[in-house]
Amino acid sequence: MDNFIFGQYSPGDSFIHRLDPRNKLFLTILIIVASLLIHSWVSPLILLLVCAFAIQTSHVGWHFLIHGIKFFIHMILLTSLLQLLLSRSGKVYWYFWIFNISSFGAHIAIMSFFRFIIAIIISMLFLLTTSPIEISDTISSLLNPLKFIHVPVEDISLTISIALRFVPTMTGEVHRIMDAQKSRGVQFHKGNVIKRIKMSIPIMFPLFINTFKRAEDLASAMILRGYTGNRYRSSIRKMHWHINDTIVFIAIILIIILIFLLIES
Amino acid sequence: MAIQFKNVSYVYHQNAKQPFEALKNINFHIQTGSLTAIIGQTGSGKSTLIRHLNGLLHPTKGEVIIDHFHIDNKTDDANLYELRKKVGVIFQFPEHQLFAKTVLDDVSFGSINFGFKKSIAIKNAKDSLKLLGVNEHWFHQAPLELSGGQMRRVALAGVLAFHPKILVLDEPTAGLDPNGHRQIMAIIKSLQVEQHVTIIMVTHSMNDVANYADQVIVMQNGKLLQSTTPKKLFQNIPFLKQHHLGLP
């Protein structure tokens, strides 16, 4: 839990930080989609290489990032292991009771491992290098066309930016509550599954109560400052598309086209 | 139970780009049965320091010695259960951590976790609630129905109920009215005098330092500036002025 960095922003001024957030979001989604469509063993390695290059240029720090996704890596390893042991198709190398290792199982286990790793790394990198404000601006700019069919885009983007803003606050809160309950003798890393689930009540319950209280306070504060929903708001921040964005955009698209033309076909 | 800090440093986000050293080479000693006040501005490392007293944080460098417990960066969390039974910590705004269905359940939660029998845990819970002046007809109510001041008392009772030998309090009276403040401080002092509980208290009130503390620790930017008696501290006018500390 201490190293849980999902949704955290790591401020910096690297090449990746400076890219247009709309570009980053688009390419992140593109890479995730590409990683889901590939079937060869070589393609994920190329995509991982792209990820590695991005991590290196982002100056986020390898150790920090890998520590942060440890939890996800464990989960992914578990799912891959289950896929490896439970799917039977193709040549069967070994079996025991309901478990077996088959050529097809091995293939999808490895592929799904790579797919999830790529998706986690690249989305983590997007979140680490893009401030919450930029993320909500990006989302609202992507939703902008929906205004024509009367979708309350302004409200949605405000809700998203508030939600993102409160992720670190709530993480801090969870830490504080855990500290307090540990001081009252709760041992989070002991006991069977049911005991551990029970142990989440002393954390989740105060967390919900405090979050509702905070939401009420926030709503009052917004009303007092005269907030009314769904008005046009100008933005103090402008997003700029630079030449670097064009270069990265073209480079990633080319890599993905090449993967599909040369390796996947 | 005496407490000793030996060259304790603590670094947050050690793996990140910008690690933050919250404690810098802290050394002090606290005697059994004394009442120590920790003062210092926001961000001076007080909260980090008190999290070392029951092993929630382990020193990055140096060693914390509490009775026969030694905590350094290699200490295993599993060994700290016994320590936490002896050292009760009450954080800022403890009423934010109440969760149980009834006041009595919440107050006995700690005792039951620390292996007290249910009947004894309930008895201890009732005793500490009475000590803190919580009316008996609240015992079976939900803690969230109480007023802020009452909730604070319930939260304090939840730690007192397992009879810790060391009691650590982070601004126990923040946000209470003057009357509640006086009552709580009197109870804390009586625990020290009558039951010889060692007490460590973070506070911003110079009056409390002067009225109740035997020892005072002054923190600034993660460094320990002074560990002295309140009398000596308040006589040292140039030091107080230099570090923006008030007089009682």
From TrEMBL, chain A:
Pfam family, one: CbiQ
Keywords per UniProt: Membrane, Transmembrane, Transmembrane helix
Transmembrane stretches, start-end: 25-55, 61-85, 116-135, 241-263
A GO CC term assigned to this protein in UniProt: plasma membrane
InterPro entries: ABC/ECF_trnsptr_transmembrane
Major place of residence: membrane
Membrane topology per record: Multi-pass membrane protein
Record flagged with keyword Membrane: yes
Subcellular location: Membrane
Name of the protein in its database record: Energy-coupling factor transporter transmembrane protein EcfT
Organism: Philodulcilactobacillus myokoensis
Gene: ecfT_2
Automatic annotation (TrEMBL), chain B:
Gene3D superfamilies the UniProt entry points to: P-loop containing nucleotide triphosphate hydrolases
EC number: 7.-.-.-
Molecular functions per Gene Ontology: ATP binding; ATP hydrolysis activity; ATPase-coupled transmembrane transporter activity
GO cellular component: ATP-binding cassette (ABC) transporter complex
Major site of localization recorded for this protein: membrane
Keywords: ATP-binding, Cell membrane, Membrane, Nucleotide-binding, Translocase, Transport
Topology with respect to the bilayer: Peripheral membrane protein
Compartments, as annotated in UniProt: Cell membrane
Domain ABC transporter: 3-246
Top EC group: translocase
Xref: Pfam families: ABC_tran
Role of this protein: ATP-binding (A) component of a common energy-coupling factor (ECF) ABC-transporter complex.
Self-association and partners: Forms a stable energy-coupling factor (ECF) transporter complex composed of 2 membrane-embedded substrate-binding proteins (S component), 2 ATP-binding proteins (A component) and 2 transmembrane proteins (T component).
Family indicated by similarity: Belongs to the ABC transporter superfamily. Energy-coupling factor EcfA family.
Descriptive protein name: Energy-coupling factor transporter ATP-binding protein EcfA2
Source organism: Philodulcilactobacillus myokoensis
